[in-house]
Specification:
Elements lengths: L9 H10 L7 H8 L5 H26 L6 H6 L3 H13 L4 E5 L5 H8 L3 E6 L2 H13 L6 E5 L12 E4 L4 E2 L2 E2 L10 H10 L3 E6 L13 E7 L2 E9 L6 E6 L3 E4 L14 E5 L1 H5 L3 H8 L2 E4 L2 E6 L8 E11 L2 H10 L2 E8 L6 H8 L5 E10 L2 E9 L3
Parallel strand pairs: 1-2, 1-4, 2-3, 4-7, 8-10, 16-17
Antiparallel strand pairs: 5-6, 7-9, 8-9, 10-11, 12-14, 12-15, 13-14, 15-18, 17-18
Helix pairs in contact: 1-3, 5-6
Amino acid sequence: MNDLAPLLTPEGRALLDEVRDTDPAQELAVATRLRREHPAELVSAALGQARLRQRAVVKFGAEDAGRMFFTPNGVEQSTRASVAAYRARRMAGLGITSVADLCCGIGGDAIALARAGIRVLAVDRDPQTAAAARANADALGLAGLIEVREADVTDVDTAGFDAVFVDPARRGGRGRIFDPEAYSPPLSWAVSAARRAPRGAALKIAPGIPHEAVPEDAEAEWISDGGDVKEAVLWFGTEPGAVRATLLPGPRTLLSRGLPDPAVRPPGRYLYEPDGAVIRAHLVAEVADQVEGGLLDATIAYVTADALHPTPYATAYEITDHLPFNVKKLKALLRERRVGTLTVKKRGSAVEPEELRRKVKPQGPHAATVFLTRVAGAPAMLIGHPARA
């Protein structure tokens, strides 16, 4: 599976086409049949690649995933195509025409940059990963804009490029790496490379990076896609010190205005659940200001307000009940209202949603949402449903 060369031959490509829609439950039967006519190693590699392509559909879409080549790590660590395309459009909008993509992986970001009309040098030190990036550029008709180089990024001269994009490895033998200086290469090296780029740079980092670790001359952007936080990006050459949350699809971008923390107030008729990118970017105050609301608790990112003010940066719920935390009372209330579909959300509560569902045993034709949280420091339950404008 790790050696792509046999799959790039005419026999390998034909075999990939034959197994592309193989049901995992039928793999053994398919492999047994194909090994009568093809080398066993090639059949295994084709079936393995087919599995990776199926997993990659969620990130790259069926059309691209069906033509691309993947490594197991490449599927897991590559940027979702929608996020890469947004970032590439932003770079193109800055007038950037050439980018050194350092730690390019299987080439997902290089593909997005090339599709935005940007010339790319894609660099990765792993031979199989670089081979996959090269094969992907060719498979998608972008080889004329993407040069793939197998090298250590710290040895690459980027002087001939407008900008650099760096996606350091944030996983090690023990899983995710949380210390930016333990990235490979370290964040300090990536920042130095970014500052040398003549037109700007973008550094992809973990969304959990502490705000105090963001350089003063960088813009920090947190990006979510479909409500899921995907990454943070440090931009150089844009707006030093700016902080933003960007929501995809859209894009919709919320900029920091440096507002103070919202006041804590009693629960109102509506509860607003800010998007994860808004929370990571510390922009809950901006959302509270938009909806004329305050916080349920000083340490929890739930906003409450008396009126409905629709905003793309938070999901609004109409609250029907506010109770101290009590499982028996919740069970009785749900039984009385014949609630069978119960959505459990929590912040600031140790209770697990599945545990609560087992205890209250919801039954009936109606639906409700319960928020397990704190109100002014006290454990509480707020029951409601998505607000209707």
